[in-house]
Amino acid sequence: MRLPMEATGASGTTAIAVRQMEWLRRLVEAGTPRQVAAEIVRLAGEYPACRSAVVVWGFDGTGQPECEPSGQPTDSELALARLAAMKVGPVFRVEGSRIALRLADAQPAVLLVEVKGETEQHRFIDAGAVWLEIAGRHLARALEAVELRGSLKRMGRSERLQHALFAISDLAGSDRDMPDMLRGIQAIVGTLMYAENFFIVLYNAERDTLRFLYFVDVEDRRPRDPHLEIAMASRERSLTWYLIRDGRPLMGSTDQLLAQISGPYVAVGPDSEDWLGVPMLRDGQVHGAIVVQSYQPGIGFSAEDRTLLEFVASHILTALERKQGKDDLEQRVRLRTTELAEANQVLQQEIVERHRAERLQKALFQIAQLATADISQGQFYRRVHAVVGALLNAKNFFIGLLSGDGRMLDFPYYIDGGVNSLASRPLGRGLSEYVLRKGVPLRAMTTGIVDLALQGEVDPLMAGTKVVCWLGVPLFVDESAI
Bridge-partner residues for 252, per DSSP? Predict the structure, then answer.
């Protein structure tokens, strides 16, 4: 079977068209990045001179890049893929006749191909240019969709946490009695993670005792007196004892917990499938602990659950203190309220940043669509202007390109100060030329432009004396500003 991208004789035109449509159908039906990558590998593998092909993506620095076929790329393959992810054109490696092709821009992904002989490298690129571009764009959309779903999940988690913190604060200020308030706290924690089995202990450092303030467990139904003080010595080497003594979270199965505790273990109560406990801290001192546990296989806790429980533990401690004592209540409430406001501010900022990222991703997707749309160059520039205008103030907007001989600055699109067209002008000492020379973005207010003029970097007549704020970024081709 020949590649859809490989040239053949006239007799095979119909068969090739059928194979092309079949491959396009599979590509469209591929919904995940790995499924799309598998179709790209399938496409490359049909090239007669192809020895191997692998797609690598996920160069965000947060973890190991993913690849299709599954496995771990060699160090040399990974280095070649990272190099290609930063470039527009293909990267060649003579040893082994390898090629690295960047498939997507907004979401870097790379196709690594090994062919038979150096002469086949360029033949492969020429044969697959159109099809790999189509596949790359589809892969970019799949990667963007995964990122958006992740952002929405994180936003939803932040909103649930924010709601939980407000609910805990409301409980602390309500007129509900202590048992009712503790049931409410369990219900709130249950909105964040599995909390069917849940207990809270308070620790008295002066007397070295603890109290089971609240205890609900489907396997251990013995009632606990919330007023009964239990000597810590009677619970020595239990998980709760280690929580209080060491002051750090514990999580996992019994075997995993044994590897986390600082000494021998004495079992108290029924064994659970998964156990998560966090100390309640104030000023570095342990004042109690919160524990959730699961007796059902498949229902356990994650590092994210541990982080959430650690975060809400201090707020739960505040709620308990407000119910139990009034002597230093006012000062502690002010402190916890400030901490809560700061936490909410961080969460709100995260939501704002997610919305901003979604707007930017939408703009990039729109520009990518315009690049393949059947429109004139003038329509393309006008629509790009509209997309940019949705992100920032772009009332005055132009695109300048160096002429072929590098002596002129051509303006395929120009709207500035009421002037809707400007064909070209000789290179001078304007702000646009400054950006081209330096190869870096420039954002300058009026005073900054004057400073550049005083330094001889720009001509004040060309820079414009009425500009309040000027923003320009270079456009690069092969690392050269054009």
Answer: 275
Region of residue 117 (phi > 0: left; psi between -120 and 50: alpha; otherwise: beta): left
State the pLDDT at residue 325.
Answer: 61
Token code pair at residue 4:
């859809």
Does this model's pTM top 0.70? My answer is no
The first and second tokens of residue 83, run together, are 């190099």
Nearest-CA neighbor of 108 among 84, 91, 79, 77?
84
* Residue type for position 217: D
Instruction: For 372-405, write each residue's pLDDT tens digit.
Output: 888 888 898 999 999 998 888 999 999 999 998 8
Nearest to 387 by CA among 365, 372, 409: 365
The span from the CA of 150 to the CA of 365, in Å, is: 17
Check residue 245 and give its pLDDT.
94
Helix or strand (DSSP H, E) at 242: helix 239-246
287 by Cβ neighbours in 10 Å (0-12 / 13-18 / 19+) ranks as buried
- Of 104, 116, 107, the residue nearest 47 (C-alpha): 116
Cβ atoms of 47 and 3 within 8 Å: the answer is yes
The answer to whether 186 touches 218, Cβ cutoff 8 Å, is no
- Do you know the residue count of the chain? 482
Check residue 7 and give its pLDDT.
47
Q: What is the structure's pLDDT at 147? A: 77
| pLDDT for position 202 | 93
150 vs 154: CA distance, rounded Å: 6
Q: Which residues of the chain register pLDDT less than 50?
A: 1-2, 7, 10-11, 326-327
Query: Tell me, what DSSP letter sits at residue 254?
Result: H
**Helix/strand/coil percentages in the chain, nearest 5:** 45, 20, 30
